[in-house]
Amino acid sequence: VNKESERFTNKTIMKRSNKECPVTGKEVVDPLEAPQSSINGTALAFCTSTCKSIFDRYLVKFAEILYPAKK
C-alpha cells in the first residue's frame, strides 16, 4: 500500500468519526489529525493522546458504555 492510498483511507475513516471525545466529552477540534482508535469497526477520535491511552487501556468498560447490552 502506498502512502497516498493509506492517507486517503485514514481520512475516509475519520470523516465518519465522532466530534466529541468519548473519554472527556470535550470537542475533538480536528478529527482528521486527532489521536484515533477503533471499536466494533468504528473509528473514534480523541481530544488528546492521553484520552486515547485511557480508552485503549479500559476498552471493555468504554465498549459497555458506547454499546450497552440490549435487554
Percentage of helical residues? 40-55%
Strand content: 5-15%
* Element-by-element helix/strand order: HEEHH
Poorly predicted runs: 5-9
**Average pLDDT across residues?**
81
Q: Taking strands numbered 1, 2, ... along the chain, how are they ordered across the largest sheet?
A: 1-2
* SS elements, strand count: 2
Q: Biggest β-sheet, characterized?
A: 2 strands, antiparallel
Number of helices: 3
Task: Give the N-to-C terminal Cα separation.
Answer: 43 Å
Computed structural class: alpha+beta
Radius of gyration: 13 Å
Give the CA-based shape: globular
Give the helix/strand layout.
Layout: H1 3-15, E1 36-39, E2 42-45, H2 49-57, H3 59-66
Antiparallel strand pairs: 1-2
